[in-house]
Design a protein that fits this description.
This protein has 251 residues and is of the alpha+beta class. The protein is built from 7 helices and 13 strands. It folds into 2 domains: 36-122, TATA-Binding Protein; 128-250, TATA-Binding Protein (2-Layer Sandwich), CATH 3.30.310. A hairpin with a 5-residue loop joins strand 12 and strand 13. The longest helix is centred in the last third of the chain and has 33 residues, at 195-227.
């Protein structure tokens, strides 16, 4: 008999730590919605494919990767009875506009309603200028002090530990990590840095911490299997979203 152990992305852990209400509010605060005049993705899927984009499903979520940046994507959702493209407020506006324009070109219809397009030749000066952030705080799932310090060092920071409060300083901004009442670290960033850059710093730390935790978890599971006389590792598979599935044979 074989069993699968799936190590899923860090978002589920954040959901558990923050609770449903806070997690949903945090997610919604970072959304940029573009409504369509349709009620189902199947009605426009052929236009998405024709325009050179994809539609994939992971963990029950339908998503589409940007054409000019395959590392980033947006998701599809039904809001108020209408199909909606859910972008992040930190997504590149040019990529969003490229998708909307491509959809209009390949479908010959105006799929999106109430769309405010930014002139393709216009530079968004406001986003390029640093915005003073005094106390922008992100909830995290970081709990292990040594792993957090290793994560920061791997990324290129020089963390200082002062009685459990971890600080990283740069020329323009400061990162502070401190434990909250749930024994997880909160991440506060302050200084002359744009909102987009601040969120990117959070993503960098969050993603690399998750990679380290996943790697250690996999190694621990594999070591236990190797020591067991009743189990054998049958297969190890890395999925497209970088989650890992271990298939263990029960002898």
């Amino acid at each position: 008999m074989s069993i699968n152990i799936s190590l899923i992305p860090l978002a589920l852990a954040m959901y558990i730590v923050m609770g449903e209400e806070k997690f949903n509010a945090w997610v919604r605060s970072m959304e940029k919605l573009k409504y369509t005049s349709y009620t189902n993705l199947s009605q426009i899927k052929k236009y998405i494919i024709a325009a050179g984009y994809d539609v994939t499903k992971e963990y029950g979520i339908l998503k589409t990767h940007f054409k000019s940046n395959k590392n980033d994507y947006f998701v599809w959702s039904i809001r108020e009875g209408k199909l909606c493209a859910v972008f992040s407020i930190y997504d590149d506006e040019k990529l969003i506009n490229e998708f909307i324009n491509d959809m209009k070109r390949y479908s010959n219809i105006d799929i999106f309603s109430e769309v405010s397009l930014v002139d393709q030749n216009t530079t968004i000066k406001a986003e390029e200028k640093p915005i003073n952030i005094t106390e922008q705080v992100f909830q995290t799932v970081f709990a292990d002090e040594k792993l957090l310090i290793k994560t920061l060092e791997d990324i290129g920071f020089y963390p200082e530990n002062n009685n459990g409060k971890i600080t990283c300083c740069s020329d323009n901004y400061t990162l502070n990590f401190y434990k909250n009442d749930k024994d997880n670290y909160e991440f506060k960033i302050s200084g002359n840095i744009s909102n987009k850059e601040a969120y990117q710093k959070y993503k960098d730390v969050n993603n690399h911490y998750g990679e380290i935790v996943q790697k250690e978890t996999i190694n621990n599971v594999k070591q236990k299997v190797q020591k067991s006389s009743s189990m054998r590792l049958e297969n190890e598979e890395i999925l497209e979203d970088n989650s890992v599935v271990l298939t263990i044979d029960i002898l």
